[in-house]
């Protein structure tokens, strides 16, 4: 019966083939090898790992940072750059800050009228007051207990210069995109104490700022500063620490992993990175060149007189495996 069925199948195929020829339709050639068939159809066992992921692609995946240790919550975001890139950026940013202090460069001016901002030609000389940008920014502020951020308890006052036990409350401000309809996306979220000692930088999404480019537009680093200055009022000279919450940036993870390796530390330890000299300064600058800190240091440069020209003194890192971290990566930029 099987033989008969097979013969019938071949007869049917021949008939269909003749019909196709009579109708002018080409008949697909029979694959002459299993390899040819495998190129048309996925056949288990025929496609080896090297065929699916050639060496060039495997190297590219490694360059994209897929081998970076998971030092924070989740799988991480962004693409890590070469370590030397961060060191160079940090060196440039720190040099710009020191130059502003040395030359006593005037601070950035904030105008209530957008037409007055940016007239100097240098975009960092003046900015529009974000609290006047009502068409694009929606503000929501509430008073919260500092204990709402339990990760902060992992930092020691001897390292930060701030006793968090003395700061009972924070003003938490969320800025949302006012142009949104059903869902208003977050542009900036942070918490600040009214005495001006700390900034708790939670999240910032510059892509959600739909303010048209021009004199009315304010970059995300300046947005964070203006909220802090508005909350602290006349106390900005007291600024001591900027806390970076729930760090998921792969670049920051890669910097941390490299620095810990060089320093002979395990990532389940808190480490204080001081400016120092030689290798210590090199590692310090890497952090300053990261996406998480670079923009904040730019804001401090623009307002260096307001903070009394403090030194950029330390970076403190608490990866997720450190006891008390709440499973998140938290860091601090310390001023002295």
From TrEMBL:
The UniProt annotation puts the region (Disordered) at: 45-80
Question: Which positions make up the signal peptide?
Answer: 1-24
Keywords in alphabetical order = Signal
Q: What is the protein name stated in its UniProt record?
A: Uu.00g029840.m01.CDS01
Organism of provenance: Anthostomella pinea
